[in-house]
Amino acid sequence: MNLTGGEFFSVSESNFVLDTVKVAEEARKVSGHIDVVIRLYEAYGGRGVAKISTPFKIKEAKLCNVLEDAEEGSVLDPEGSSLVVPFGPFKIVTVRLLVEATRRFVAGVSGLGIAAFAGLHLGGHLLAPVAGPGVANSFLFGVRELYQSPLVETALVVGLVTHSVAGSAAVQQTIKLKQRVTAFRGAGVFLMFAVPTHVIATRIVPWLFDTHVDLRYIRDSMVDKVHPKLSLLFYPYYIFLGAAGLYHGIVGCVSGVRIVFSLKPSPVSFSPTAASSANARTIIAVVSVVVMVASIFAIVGPSAVDPDWDFKDTHTAQIWHASTSERNLTGNSRKYHNYYSNSSQPLAMISSTNLFLAIFSLFTAVVVQAAPAPVPAPEANPVFNLNHIKLSRVPKSVTWNGHYNDYFDDNVRGHKTAAQYTGDGSQCSDAAPAYCTLPDKNGASFFVQCHRHHWVQLQCDYGFSCATDPISGHPYCASAGHP
Asked: What pTM does this model have?
């Protein structure tokens, strides 16, 4: 599987361009490692060395030929997660790396375990708009028998801490490589702060007071008559908390499943954002928010004594009425009820902090990431340095209104062109207009177009000159016999 771009590698020199990231053809199978090949090319005619950085720890590095065979004297000396690679003018450099992906592997595997718990926990809340809060309560009490058992709960705590540590390392690498924070990682950062708060409020405090919590306490925090303004913060807080958990969990599971079950792991397997399409992630994000809004308003809708809150099974009802029913609060249950009733203000302050973190994470992931890179306007008749060009891989037999411009070896109707990258490094939009340029001193005819965000100069074959199609306005190579 190929991957172009800087998702996994960054290069220090702008003229040394990362072209391809792929798994080696005859990849070695080493536990927790990936045998990966990267290809780069020098675009401007320069010579020197460049530093390549990656989220992974590099164990081995060798220069290879295009067949991915190591060259003589090709062993490079990596420094942790970076590597210095020499380059020459217009040369393609192929590097084969054995990288350690243990942290990503640990994050993926531990994330699957947490997702199994979160599916049960959030699943109970998501039943509220479908079957009513009573069914949701009964479901939550039932699954608690499973995930609140000492062995399972201990494993969940260990998994959560492990996942947080591994995820923090990934975020640090993102900052180190100066990459944009994705919505997936932004949600993860928010959850690192919000989940411990949620655990303290809904698990540790009830455990200290030997009582049970159901969705009525979630409702009470949002309709607190003592602190009505502060209680409003719980609406967006719960929505963000649930939506972030759904989005981070679903997108992360795609990566985790590929890590665990892939027989030939690739770098894409270790990136949740690369393992699923942008459209799929957008749909997941929208659906996560919608279902959480529906769930929260379904929970807050009925009053605390509404029959919709009645438990749907006798066993759960007995547990509730024996410990936390407002009609029968005694001992520690009374203490807990008083504590919880007087905790809206500090809990609301905590939720507002987490809400700010959520908004900041979403702003970073959505607004900053969506900002387009600046595109310089094309010059009317730029001067190209023909000593600083590079052959470009462009498609063959491109048709513009019946006129053919073939690239490299193919000939159609006598038209032949050779595509070359310009050496000035300017960026452009693929929608930018193409145009003819002045002939050079030897009379060669050229026209310029934008290809893959780079200005590309195309040279007409001998005997042909650049002309502009009167209908499409696009330049092409024409001769006296082929107008």
From this structure: 0.57
